Amino acid sequence: MKKIVITGGTRGLGRGLARALLEQGHQVMVCGTGQAGVAAVTNEVGVPALVADATDRAQVQALWDEAVRRFGRVDIWINNAGVSHHRVPLWRLPEPEARTVAEVNLLGVLNGCAVAAAGMAARGGGHIWNMEGLGSDGRVVPGLGVYGATKRAVTYLTRALAKEAPDGVTAGLLSPGMVVTDLLTYGDSEAARGRASEIFAILADPVDTVAPWLARRVVTRAKNGARTGRLVRLPPKEAARVGGEVTVGW
């Protein structure tokens, strides 16, 4: 049985992972930024949850401390908290929205890595997983430049952590592929939303499909420098509808 913490675990893939890991017999604690979401995941999924903002190092530390108080240790820490933004060129993206994406997706992961690495080093070790996403491989999608830049940075940060982490602490990357959550961005025009909906219907998997698959690997592939994720290749007929073969994940 592993003791696992998931940031951003009150909705979407984080919530799905919490449920799947719990069903596999592990002890799980999550956090979210709203009291309503924290209460809901506790009551409906059955995992302890704490209100914590990943962009605040002190709140992340409080999450660690509470998990250790409950479980005695933390074996695996998953930096899952993330947000997206409206699909517009970066020069049209409002500064507050750009700042939120940068802070949650990068500073939040940095905080989680720092707190978990220090805490694990003091307690004999553990593994840190960070979530990749669109942009992690350098692929550029117009209108999602800020989001993609943060995910590219997370990949670099994780590789650096894998090389510099203290003894006993390891780090790796999770690439869930395209998942049907509120992070999917459809665009502002009716035509763009229609095209995106068609593509997502082919490419994106529901949380209930992805989470159990990923949860098994969170535990079994927790090795330094590990990178694990879903690979989706479209059949030729479906690929033609979206302009050729498309690969999602790794």
SSE arrangement:
Blueprint: E1 3-6, H1 12-23, E2 27-32, H2 35-44, E3 49-51, H3 57-71, E4 76-79, H4 95-122, E5 126-131, H5 145-164, E6 169-175, H6 190-203, H7 207-220, E7 227-229, E8 232-233, H8 236-241, E9 247-248
Parallel strand pairs: 1-2, 1-4, 2-3, 4-5, 5-6, 6-7
Antiparallel strand pairs: 8-9
Helix pairs in contact: 1-7, 3-4, 4-5
Family: Belongs to the short-chain dehydrogenases/reductases (SDR) family.
Pfam family, one: adh_short
GO molecular function: chlorophyll(ide) b reductase activity
Short description:
GO terms for molecular function: chlorophyll(ide) b reductase activity. With 250 residues, the chain is of the alpha/beta class.
Secondary structure: helix percent: 40-55%
**What is the fold named in CATH at topology level?**
Rossmann fold
Q: How would you describe the shape?
A: globular
What share of the residues does DSSP label as strand, in percent?
A: 5-15%
CATH superfamily: NAD(P)-binding Rossmann-like Domain
State the total count of DSSP E strands: 9
Q: Taking all residues together, what is the mean pLDDT? A: 86
The largest sheet is:
7 strands, parallel
Structure classification = alpha/beta
Straight-line distance between termini: 28 Å
Order of the strands making up the biggest sheet? 3-2-1-4-5-6-7
Protein name: SDR family oxidoreductase
Pfam families: adh_short
GO biological process, one term: chlorophyll catabolic process
GO molecular function: chlorophyll(ide) b reductase activity
